[in-house]
C-alpha cells in the first residue's frame, strides 16, 4: 500500500501531534491542585486515533504508560462502545488491572468529535493525592483496604460533570479539594486536547487520523524490529532476589528473540503476597516495553507501533501478575525492577546499551495535619544513584525507571509542614567500576507539624544492592533511620513532632573492572564529592600521592578528609 504522505509532511504532522500532547500536559499542570501533578509530574497525556490506537504521548510524561494507556483505552471502549459516546462525554476509572496498576492513578478519556463523527481520543492519567482507604503504602491485605474503586463510568455526560461521583469521592478522601480539583483539571486538559487536535485536522485538511497513524505505526514498528534483529535469536535469562515484606522475593525473566520479535516470560517469579506490593500484568507489560524502547529506539516518540514486536506473559498469581483481590497499592516497589531484569537478561547480547542496576526511587506517603489544622496527604519523592553504562558513569541522584521530579523544598514544606533539614550527595555510595555508578543522596526530614503524622515508606535496595555489570561492583545499600534507629523502608510509622527521618539513598552499580578506571577520573570524583579520599584508596587503589588535588576544589568537596 502506497503511503499517503511524504516524509516531510508526515514528520510535520507527527511533531504537531507530540506538541499537542505537550500542550495537554501544560494545561493539566497549570490547572491542577496537587503537588503530585503540578510539581512532581506523575502524569501522562496521550492522543489516540479513531480506532483507539495510541498515536502520540507527551514528552514530559511517564514513559512507561505507553504500555498501559492503550489497554485502558480498549477496556473503556469495550464498556462504552464508540456508538454510545456523545460530545461532552468523558470516561474515568482507577481500576488497577484496567489502568496503571493501583487505585491512586486515575485515567480519564475523552472522545473527539468532528462533524458528528469520532475522529480520535485523548486520555490523561494522574496520581491523585488521596483515594481513601488506609492510604498509599504497602499495608493493605486486600484491594478493598486501599481505597475507593472507580469502575469505568462517565466522569462527564454531554459536558456536565457527574456530581454524584464527585460527591462520593469527596466523602471518601482525606483531601477532597485537591483530589476533586485534579479531576476537574483532567476535564480541562482533555477539552484543550480535543480543540487542538481539531485545529490540526483543519490546518492540514485531514478528515481522519487513521491515515497518519498507519504510517506512524508502520515506521515505528519497522524501526523496533530492525533493532531487535541485531540481537541473535535465542533465549536470554536473568533472575535476582529483592526485598519483600516477610522475606526475599525472586524475580525471573526469560527473553526469547526470534526474527525481529521478542517475548518476555516471567515464569519462576515468586507468588503474590498479602501486602500491597503485587504488580498487575498491565504494569509489568508497561515496564517491559519501556525497557525495550530504552535499548532500541529511545529517540522515536512513543506510539502503538513500538509495542507490536513485543509480547509479555507471566503466570497468574505470581507477584508480577497479581490478580484481584490481592493488594497493589505500592506495585512500583516491585514493578520498577522489571527493566533491571531485562537489562540483566540482555547484557551479553547488547553490552554497549544496557545500564547496570540503579538504586531505585524512594516514595514516602505522608499524612497528617499542618500547624494551621489543614489536613494533608502528600508524596515525598527522592532519587538514588543511576546505574553506570559502558563508557558512561551513572548520574548522581537520578530517577529510574520513572522520570518524576522531586517537589521543591519550599512547596513541600508549605503543603505538609515536614521540614527538609538538609540534602547532600552520599559520598562513596556509587558502585566502583571502570565507569562508576551514580551516587545517592542523604536527606534529613523533620516533623514540624506539632502533631503526630503517618508515613508509609515504599522503597527497596536495603538488603540487595544495585549490581554492577561486566565486573562492576554494587552500589551502597539504602537506609532509613528514624530517630537514630534503622527502620524497614516498606513500613508504616508515626513520627511525633520533632522526630527526624534520615534517608540514605542507594548507589547505582558500576560497569567494568575497577582496575581499568583512570586515576585522573578518581581525582575528578574526589574533587566533585562523589568519592572520599579513603574510598579512593579502598575501592580504586588510588592514593593522594598518585593524584594532585586542586586546593580550592578539595575545600568545596563533601567530607574529603580522613575519618
Automatic annotation (TrEMBL):
**Alphabetized GO MF terms:** 5-oxoprolinase (ATP-hydrolyzing) activity
| Hydantoinase B/oxoprolinase domain location | 6-513
Kindly list the biological process annotations in GO that this record carries.
glutathione metabolic process
Q: InterPro entries attached here?
A: Hydantoinase_B (IPR003692), Oxoprolinase-like (IPR045079)
Could you give one GO CC term from the UniProt record? cytosol
Recorded protein name is Unannotated protein
Question: Whose protein is this, by species?
Answer: freshwater metagenome
Q: Upper taxonomic classification of the species?
A: unclassified sequences, metagenomes, ecological metagenomes
Amino acid at each position: 500500500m502506497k503511503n499517503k504522505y511524504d516524509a516531510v509532511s508526515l514528520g510535520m504532522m507527527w511533531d504537531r501531534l507530540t506538541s499537542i500532547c505537550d500542550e495537554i500536559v501544560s494545561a493539566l499542570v497549570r490547572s491542577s491542585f496537587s503537588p503530585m501533578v503540578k510539581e512532581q509530574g506523575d502524569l501522562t497525556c496521550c492522543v489516540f486515533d479513531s480506532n483507539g490506537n495510541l498515536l502520540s504521548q507527551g514528552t514530559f510524561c511517564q514513559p512507561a504508560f505507553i504500555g498501559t494507556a492503550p489497554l485502558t483505552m480498549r477496556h473503556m471502549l469495550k464498556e462504552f462502545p464508540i456508538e454510545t459516546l456523545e460530545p461532552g462525554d468523558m470516561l474515568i476509572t482507577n481500576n488497577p488491572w484496567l489502568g496503571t496498576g493501583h487505585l491512586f492513578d486515575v485515567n480519564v478519556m475523552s472522545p473527539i468529535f468532528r462533524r458528528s463523527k469520532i475522529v480520535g481520543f485523548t486520555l490523561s492519567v494522574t496520581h491523585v493525592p488521596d483515594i481513601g482507604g488506609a492510604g498509599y503504602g504497602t499495608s493493605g491485605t486486600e484491594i478493598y483496604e486501599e481505597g475507593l474503586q472507580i469502575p469505568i463510568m462517565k466522569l462527564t455526560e454531554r459536558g456536565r460533570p457527574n456530581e454524584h461521583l464527585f460527591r462520593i469521592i469527596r466523602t471518601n478522601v482525606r483531601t477532597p479539594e485537591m483530589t476533586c480539583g485534579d479531576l476537574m483539571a483532567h476535564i480541562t486538559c482533555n477539552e484543550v486536547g480535543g480543540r487542538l487536535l481539531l485545529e490540526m485536522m483543519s490546518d492540514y485538511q485531514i478528515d481522519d487520523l487513521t491515515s497518519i497513524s498507519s504510517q506512524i505505526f508502520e515506521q515505528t514498528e519497522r524501526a523496533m524490529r530492525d533493532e531487535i534483529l541485531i540481537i541473535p535469536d535465542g533465549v536470554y535469562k536473568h533472575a535476582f532476589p529483592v526485598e519483600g515484606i516477610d522475606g526475599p522475593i525472586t524475580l525471573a525473566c526469560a527473553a526469547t528473540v526470534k526474527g525481529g520479535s521478542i517475548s518476555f516470560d516471567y515464569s519462576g517469579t515468586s507468588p503474590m503476597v498479602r501486602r500491597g506490593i503485587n504488580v498487575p500484568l498491565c504494569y509489568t507489560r508497561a515496564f517491559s516495553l519501556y525497557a525495550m524502547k530504552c535499548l532500541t529506539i529511545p529517540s522515536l516518540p512513543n506510539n502503538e507501533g513500538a509495542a507490536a514486536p513485543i509480547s509479555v506473559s507471566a503466570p497468574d498469581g505470581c507477584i508480577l501478575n497479581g490478580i484481584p483481590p490481592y493488594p497493589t497499592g505500592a506495585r512500583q516497589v516491585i514493578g520498577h525492577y522489571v527493566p533491571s531484569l531485562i537489562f540483566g537478561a540482555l547484557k551479553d547480547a547488547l553490552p554497549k546499551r544496557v545500564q547496570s542496576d540503579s538504586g531505585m526511587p524512594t516514595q514516602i506517603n505522608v499524612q497528617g495535619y499542618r500547624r494551621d489544622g489543614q489536613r494533608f496527604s502528600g508524596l515525598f519523592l527522592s532519587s538514588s544513584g543511576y546505574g553506570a553504562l559502558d563508557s558512561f558513569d551513572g548520574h548522581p541522584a537520578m530517577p529510574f525507571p520513572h522520570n518524576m521530579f522531586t517537589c521543591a523544598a519550599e512547596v513541600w514544606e508549605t503543603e505538609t509542614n515536614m521540614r527538609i533539614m538538609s540534602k547532600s550527595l552520599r559520598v562513596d555510595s556509587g558502585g566502583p567500576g571502570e565507569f562508576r555508578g551514580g551516587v545517592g543522596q542523604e536527606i534529613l526530614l523533620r516533623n514540624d507539624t506539632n502533631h503526630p503524622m503517618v508515613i508509609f515508606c515504599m522503597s527497596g535496595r536495603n538488603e540487595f544492592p544495585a549490581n554492577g555489570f561486566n565486573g562492576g561492583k554494587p552500589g551502597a545499600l539504602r537506609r532509613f533511620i528514624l530517630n537514630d534507629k534503622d527502620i524497614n523502608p516498606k513500613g508504616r510509622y508515626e513520627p511525633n513532632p520533632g522526630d527526624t527521618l534520615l534517608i540514605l539513598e542507594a548507589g547505582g552499580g558500576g560497569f567494568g573492572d575497577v582496575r581499568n578506571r583512570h586515576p585522573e577520573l578518581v581525582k575528578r570524583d574526589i574533587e566533585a564529592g562523589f568519592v572520599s579520599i579513603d574510598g579512593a584508596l579502598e575501592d580504586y587503589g588510588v592514593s593522594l600521592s598518585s593524584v594532585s588535588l586542586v586546593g580550592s576544589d578539595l575545600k568545596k568537596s563533601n567530607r574529603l578528609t580522613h575519618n
